[in-house]
Amino acid sequence: MVFRLFFLSLSLFFLECASRVVSNLPATEESFLVSKQIQWIQSANEFTLRNESLGKDFIKLSLNEPFLQAFTKETISKYRMASFKFKETLKNSCTEQSIDEIKKENGRITIKGKLSGKDCSSDYQLLIQTKSETEIEFKITLSNPELNRIQFQYGSHPEEKIFGLGEQFTYDELKGKTPFVFAEEQGIGRGDQPITAGANLVADAGGNVYTTYAPIPHYITSDNRSVFFENSGYANFDFSDSKKTKVEFWDFQSEKSLTGTIWLGTSAKSLIEAYTKKTGRFPKLPDWAYGTLLGVQGGTEKVSTIIKQAKDAGNPVTGLWIQDWCGRRVTNFGDQLKWRWYADETLYPDFKKFVKSMNDQNVQVLGYVNPFLGATDPKKVDDDFTNPLLTEAKTKGYLVKNQNGEDYLIQNVGFPAYLIDLTNPTAVRWIKDLIKKNMIGVGLSGWMADFGEGLPYDAKLASGVDAKIYHNRYPVDWARINREAIKEAGMEGKVVFFTRAGYSYSNTYSTLFWAGDQMVSYGINDGLPSSIIGLTSSGISGYALNHSDIGGYTTISNPLRNYHRSKELLLRWAEVSAFTPVFRTHEGNRPLKNWQAYTYTKPDGTKSLGDEDTVALFAKIARIHFALKPYIQSLVEEASLTGIPVVRHNAIVEPEDKNLLKYKYQFFLGDDLLVAPIVESGEIVQNVYLPRGRWQHLWTGTTYDGYRKVQVPAPIGKPPAFIRIGGKSEALIRSSISSIRNKD
């Protein structure tokens, strides 16, 4: 979780004082056909690379100011619990640009010149290579290795809307915004008050509107243009000027260049398909993954009782997610886990036998793992925690090091831990063997592959790679290792792991994403509404299979205000999740403070928050999700072939409807089911905007024409949803939902 210092200073970030561009080329206007359809147009004021047949620009470079600038900056990073603060000091700035040569060849354009400034100079080269009539690649190199920041500026226009940059939570459209791309804790509150102020005061953990676990330097625009940067260093994107876009990458010299791809398309879908063809697509989910995955912990007796209770209520439970399979560790943050990756025989005696007993009831069992190894808490005098896996990893040199070459002790919420060095091939084999033996080997059908965003900025790694550029790659490798363990065990297509941290190419390896740790609230930045933005934005950048913890996770007890999950919030969140690929609950970090989807009384008389009405209503909502299984399966298969997400942003399905884009908490499941969930407490009716065509309300059967707002009843258990009449999936949706619409 992060509190970002926005005073990183725009004067340093986008320094433009005394900046200018000098062209040493003849002052003539000309054009050059780079390929059959792509034309290079050169004038005194700008360079343009254009696809003539589509009538669209790949890129436009203004000559009225430098389109390249470079800097040397010294960065100091403050790190706490995967939350980062950065303080920068400017050393040198090359803010003047000359253009000395343009070489035009069939299929490529090369621009050469110099960047200069006080005590600063460098030659540069910009190479643009056509890959097809709708795809180009670019590569920018500088001769001065001391310059560790590069800024690239290119044209936009006021009407161009920007979507993507991975999993965002506050803004689904980024024009006018200044997001950054850096994987980290999303923060507690992210701007919702008073919790953000409190989290910052106590632990600098409040985050802000741009902090996210899973950013990607990729976006699409309403002009049907897609831009992707290959680099993995920290990046700032500035869309605040309506006529241009600025991008600044840190530490690009460690990767030798700034490189990327630009696509043009005829639709948002075609762009997503092109992007995921390059970066990867999710596999199909196994059949069992489409039922309710009940997240419960507390030992054999408790979870068995709750599974029976849910099934007796008609809940289609097909999975039991028990994150405390490895043991429970109570901290000041609540119920947490023993980060040692083998079964806890105290909570779950004969764990393998227990898993088999669940499988015999057609319930798959899922666990939990992360790339940390928990350590004894030195602040807790009576801490009797031991971890033989940590002892082994320390002895064999499997851990990330600090600047002194010592194992890097990292303070997490509740207790300290050490991070496995995923650049060490021997350490990778070791953790894969643990997954194969201790998890797959005891019968687990999946797990939460947590964290991945916590590599310190100043860490030392076995491979010698700079942690500054490996930080964003770490979660990708963490997913890759989990996937390889499954393949090596011969369980591909049968085992599902879900990740929260990610970056470019995560979609090559992850089998499923989830949106991380939202507050148990209706907060727009970190509550139920934000989980919807997470789903719709992430699908644009390749996270085609995503879901969230039903009810949220982060639970806070505070004298100023408690954040405890209510019955209403739990059920409204379930309604949203009914229209996502996976329907999974979480008890939260303080289970006894949160309303749960079950009732349970411990042997000592302690009761969970929950009632029989909740059990019944939750089962009813779960049956909606399960009834939609044939439709969702068809969308998952489509995603595996094309990369087009299951949950779809309005701009993917109805890009021409500017009114619809204003309703950012509405979304589509596929193209033919429009969902308008309740995201505010106390609401029992919903105002819905319907796009083109004709739509039928899922529950009343009332038919409405599009391009209008309607108001529909929204009692709990009947979330506002509409079938597109005449849609290609209309019949499939109707046949899927008919059984529960008539019954419930």
UniProtKB/TrEMBL annotation:
<dbReference type="InterPro" id="IPR044112">
    <property type="entry name" value="YihQ_TIM-like"/>
</dbReference>
<feature type="domain" description="Glycoside hydrolase family 31 TIM barrel">
    <location>
        <begin position="284"/>
        <end position="634"/>
    </location>
</feature>
<keyword id="KW-0378">Hydrolase</keyword>
<dbReference type="Pfam" id="PF01055">
    <property type="entry name" value="Glyco_hydro_31_2nd"/>
</dbReference>
<dbReference type="InterPro" id="IPR011013">
    <property type="entry name" value="Gal_mutarotase_sf_dom"/>
</dbReference>
<dbReference type="InterPro" id="IPR000322">
    <property type="entry name" value="Glyco_hydro_31_TIM"/>
</dbReference>
<dbReference type="GO" id="GO:0004558">
    <property type="term" value="F:alpha-1,4-glucosidase activity"/>
</dbReference>
<dbReference type="InterPro" id="IPR052990">
    <property type="entry name" value="Sulfoquinovosidase_GH31"/>
</dbReference>
<comment type="similarity">
    <text>Belongs to the glycosyl hydrolase 31 family.</text>
</comment>
<dbReference type="InterPro" id="IPR048395">
    <property type="entry name" value="Glyco_hydro_31_C"/>
</dbReference>
<keyword id="KW-0326">Glycosidase</keyword>
<feature type="domain" description="Glycosyl hydrolase family 31 C-terminal">
    <location>
        <begin position="643"/>
        <end position="726"/>
    </location>
</feature>
<dbReference type="GO" id="GO:0005975">
    <property type="term" value="P:carbohydrate metabolic process"/>
</dbReference>
<protein>
    <submittedName>
        <fullName>Alpha-glucosidase</fullName>
        <ecNumber>3.2.1.20</ecNumber>
    </submittedName>
</protein>
<dbReference type="Pfam" id="PF21365">
    <property type="entry name" value="Glyco_hydro_31_3rd"/>
</dbReference>
<dbReference type="InterPro" id="IPR013780">
    <property type="entry name" value="Glyco_hydro_b"/>
</dbReference>
<dbReference type="GO" id="GO:0030246">
    <property type="term" value="F:carbohydrate binding"/>
</dbReference>
<dbReference type="InterPro" id="IPR017853">
    <property type="entry name" value="GH"/>
</dbReference>
